[in-house]
Design brief:
With 546 residues, this protein is of the alpha+beta class. It folds into four domains: 61 residues; 149 residues, no CATH class; 96 residues, no CATH class; 152 residues, Histidine kinase-like ATPase, C-terminal domain (Heat Shock Protein 90, 2-Layer Sandwich). It is built from 15 helices and 13 strands. Helix 1 runs antiparallel to helix 8 and helix 8 packs parallel to helix 9. It is rod-shaped.
């Protein structure tokens, strides 16, 4: 079991560690997968030829970056003046129509800026847009646009410049406007040189800084005369990790791995310790059970009471003690039965032998035999009662009047009390009924009366009374007999126990009456109590909770 517990702990820890490390790696790597999406890659592939043409035209990446910075500044200036302008652009072609209509601005700057950026994305020169939006015009002019070619950009092989194929743009198209159109979608364009340094950045934040190879691998390579001159990547605005940042992330990953391994090692040691702590008490219980099975009754196991295993061990020890006690009682019961049966059987054998030898008449022998048989019959009856009550179902419970039950029990002994003993009953009025078996309760009271008569000399007094305390009902049986020594009081309710076996035998006691009383009270969730002093008599109390 210890091995199974250890393996369970170990497997849980290892799985948790591996899952944490995988999540850490996937979390950092997923940044590029999210920020450099497939759509951005496809867009970069479309723009890459134009970007190469711009590089050929200007001669260096720094020139491309400088042109880009100027156009971005122009774009910002245009955006600032848009709220004061109104415009309308319409296609008068008549064949294929393309129209963009925008009503005069209504203090909705977000809508105005969005429309202006749409124009920029379609490669319309800001100067042309500014002319269209000129506030000096009394009314916006109608401008004819060839809709079929409005979105088209093509490299011009003559001067390696891009030209917009529209009648209104006669200046060569600058690739910077292609790049700046990316910013309208909250994206950024980056060109990484062959040495890993950023040479073009639409936001200008990472110029001159190195980025990680994992970022470069997600871009479109740019070649000139067969030689790679850079990589073009379109990503989200914050979708770039510099080499320093990526180094930090690598250290974080390594830290996860090393820390996870150390934690796993410590956790495995802890798992081994916990497995031992959990399995050791169980192995001890198993060994104890084997010892009890081999006959070592009452064997006890050490335990820690506060733990759950400790509680289980405590219950096991109590069970072991109870089994040992029951085994002892069973052996004692057999001895007591042998002793109880031996005496009447011996007397009956002597009576029959005396009758055969002519020492007494058959009538006298029959009378003596009948007395002994009656004694044996009562003994067997009591034993059957005790045995049946150990396994019997719930008593026949009902609401009963306690005073009436006591009165019925007292009437059975009026003849015995007349033999020089005073027997009286003092009831308490207005007692509430109790829930119980009337026959069993009457038998318990009768056994107490019989016991009191047996040990009270002639001229003595036996008093019964019922009483109600704060939360209990009681039946009290008090006698003025010889009393019981204190060392015998804890044992008088055990089967066949007698404080003085010879006197009990002479007086007819069998050592079962008080055991029957105790068992009946336990079946009624009550208890029997005794107080006694030698020479002053005894007081028995039957107590029920109210």
């Amino acid at each position: 079991m210890r091995l199974q517990l250890f393996l369970s702990f170990a497997l849980t820890i290892v799985v948790g560690m591996v899952a944490s490390w995988i999540m850490a790696v996937r979390t950092t790597d997923a940044e590029f997968a999210v920020l450099v999406s497939d759509s951005n890659y496809q867009r970069a592939e479309l723009i890459a030829p134009s970007l190469l043409a711009e590089y050929e035209s200007l001669g260096s990446w720094s020139a491309v970056q400088e042109s880009l910075a100027q156009q971005i500044a122009h774009q910002v200036e245009l955006a600032e003046m848009l709220p004061s302008l109104s415009f309308e652009i319409a296609d008068m072609n008549g064949v294929s129509t393309f129209s963009i209509q925008h009503t005069p601005f209504s203090n909705d700057s977000d809508e105005d800026l969005t429309f202006a950026f749409q124009l920029l994305e379609r490669f319309v020169d800001p100067q042309v847009i500014q002319q269209w939006l000129s506030p000096s015009l009394d009314r916006p002019p109608a401008i004819q646009v060839n809709a079929n070619s409005f979105f088209v950009i093509q490299p011009n092989k003559t001067d390696n410049r891009l030209r917009r194929d529209t009648p209104f743009v006669i200046e060569p198209a600058d690739i910077s406007w292609t790049l700046t159109s990316i910013t309208s979608a909250q994206q950024r364009g980056i060109v990484v040189g062959d040495d890993g340094q950023v040479v073009v950045d639409t936001s200008s934040e990472l110029l001159g800084k190195k980025v990680d190879d994992s970022f470069i691998s997600r871009g479109v390579p740019l070649y000139r005369n067969g030689a790679k001159i850079g990589t073009f990547v379109i990503t989200s605005e914050d979708g770039v990790y510099t080499l320093e940042q990526n180094t930090f992330l690598q250290k974080v990953r390594q830290g996860y791995l090393v820390g996870g391994l150390i934690s796993a090692g410590l956790a495995l040691v802890l798992a081994l310790f916990l497995a031992h702590q959990l399995s050791s008490p169980i192995r001890s219980l198993t060994a104890a059970a084997v010892r009890i099975q081999s006959g070592e009754w009452g064997y006890q196991v050490g335990f820690r009471a506060r733990s759950d295993i400790g509680k289980l061990t405590l219950a096991f020890n109590e069970m072991s003690h109870h089994l040992a006690e029951q085994r002892h009682l069973r052996a004692q019961l057999v001895d007591d039965l042998a002793h109880e049966l031996k005496t009447p059987l011996t007397l009956m054998r002597l009576e029959t032998q005396g009758m055969a030898d002519g020492l007494q008449t058959p009538q006298d022998a029959a009378e003596h035999l009948n007395q002994e048989l009656e004694e044996v019959s009562e003994l067997v009856s009591d034993l059957i009662f005790l045995a049946s009550r150990d396994t019997a179902p719930t008593p026949q419970m009902d609401w009963i009047d306690l005073n009436m039950v006591v009165t019925s029990a007292v009437r059975r002994f009026e003849g015995s009390a007349s033999e020089g003993r005073i027997l009286k009953f003092t009831p308490t009025d207005d007692l509430p009924p109790i829930y119980g078996d009337a026959y069993l309760i009457q038998r318990a009271i009768s056994n107490l009366i019989a016991n009191a008569i047996r040990y009270t000399p002639r001229g003595g007094e036996i008093t019964l009374m019922t009483t109600r305390e704060t939360d209990t009902l009681q039946v009290i049986v008090k006698d003025s007999g010889e009393g019981i020594p204190s060392e015998h009081l804890p044992h008088i309710f055990e089967r066949f126990y007698r404080a003085d076996s010879s006197r009990s035998r002479q007086s007819g006691g069998r050592g079962l009456g008080l055991a029957i009383v105790k068992q009946i009270m336990q079946q009624h969730q009550g208890q029997v109590l005794v107080e006694s002093q030698v020479g002053q008599g005894s007081t028995f109390r039957l107590v029920w909770s109210v």
